[in-house]
Amino acid sequence: MPRIIPIEQIARAILILRGQRVLLDTELATLYGVTTKRLNEQVKRNNKRFPADFIFRLSRAETQALNRSQFATGSQKHRDPRFPPFAFTEHGAIMAATILNSPLAVEMSIYVVRAFLRLRELLASSKALAQKLNELERKLRNHDKAIATILASSVPAPPDVPGYHQGWQQRMEPAGRNSPAPAGYQAEYRAAARLRRAHGRSG
Fold this sequence. Notes:
The chain has helices at about 5-15, 25-30, 35-45, 60-70, 90-100, 105-155, 165-170, 185-200; strands spanning about 15, 20-25, 55, 85-90. It is of the alpha+beta class.
């Protein structure tokens, strides 16, 4: 009886290496119900069916990086760098099921294809979401600028009071000694006068 494996479980085993979505030989062999050794032997015997865009072998550096990766599953780690694993693209996984020629492999290859499709959909939706977020952020920035412009234009102009723009000292000293202080500054004017008297100057 064919095993029932959730599509999401297969999708989580798919890695992105060299810009391609792939399944490692250990993962694919487990899905197809064979040992990794038998899978790779069959691939070797039918190497003409596996061009470079169907399968490639990881380098030693890639294998070491995979062993250190926190995103790799247990079966994807602890590979001896001297014997790097093979990585199967979607087309390579389908071809592997063909050369194994077992009912289970054929059955599971359908789920594998669906898993690759699901991952493509997730990546596409993530890209679309990122674009929408960038667009929203740009609109918010423009919106903030518009609000700042409106607020700036709504601030009333400074009152037309003599001495308002010339600083504290000038505001406190009208043109004439006996001239009345501008409206709203009487208290400040009296305080300034007291300070002048304290320093020996006449108010």
